[in-house]
Amino acid sequence: TQGLEDLGACLIDGHWRLLEFDYHFRVLSYFLNLIDSNSWNVTCIPYKETIENLQDLMPMCILEHVFQQYCELSGDRDDEGEPLYSLLEDKTCSFLAEVLLRPAGKFNLQDFLQAWQDSVPEGLQTDLKQLDGLALTDLEARPQVIWFYPENELPEDIQERINVLFEIRDKWTLDQLHPYIEKLTTEKQNVNALLTKYARASNINGVRYYSSRHGK
User: Fold this and answer.
1) How far is Cα 93 from Cα 208, in angstroms, rounded to an integer?
2) Beta partners for residue 172, in sequence order
3) Where along the chain do its domains lie?
4) Where are the beta strands (DSSP E) in the chain?
5) 89-150 in CATH: which number?
6) Which of these CATH numbers, 2.30.40.10, 1.10.10.10, 3.50.50.60, 3.40.50.1580, describes 154-215?
7) Which pTM was predicted?
8) pLDDT tens for residues 66-111?
9) Helix 174-181, helix 191-198: angle, nearest 10
């Protein structure tokens, strides 16, 4: 079940279900709007009050699932002794970036960065590292661009995945490739080992790049 939980699956009536993206966004929006309307600090979110306010808007199992997905115990308690929660910054920012990127095609990077920061709750800070395995950037383009490119939609077979990645981009750095290869690693083969086997390394101006073994 850990793999299902990692995918954000929800256990409903004994069956694992993935929330449809738009519904997931709607549920999260209710939650974030409640935080905003109450001017709650993103590190001081009351579980009990959240549940009471939103329980009529969605099934309880969905509400609790989304709360658990996006919050963690802060270690503090309110005046009544109820535990307070913190919003998970990276997870929240990543999902809200996906909301912007999914329908956009290639997005002017600077425009995206501004729109993204404006879309997240006050107190959270966006960072491109939050988009590892979710989006690609082209910093050589003028203007610079970003586009939706999710790891979970790539082939599970390592050779097929490598082929697809090198069709998208001729040369990758290790940092760029890592989030797209990491889930296919094993105890015996880490990312470096997989790239040694399936890709060709070269150094350009002191930077190591990986390209297709069958490329020119």
Assistant:
1) 30
2) 210
3) 1-87, 89-150, 154-215
4) 10-12, 15-17, 45-46, 71-77, 83-87, 107-108, 135-138, 145-148, 199-204, 207-212
5) 1.10.10
6) 1.10.10.10
7) 0.88
8) 999 999 999 999 888 889 999 999 999 999 999 999 998 899 999 9
9) 100
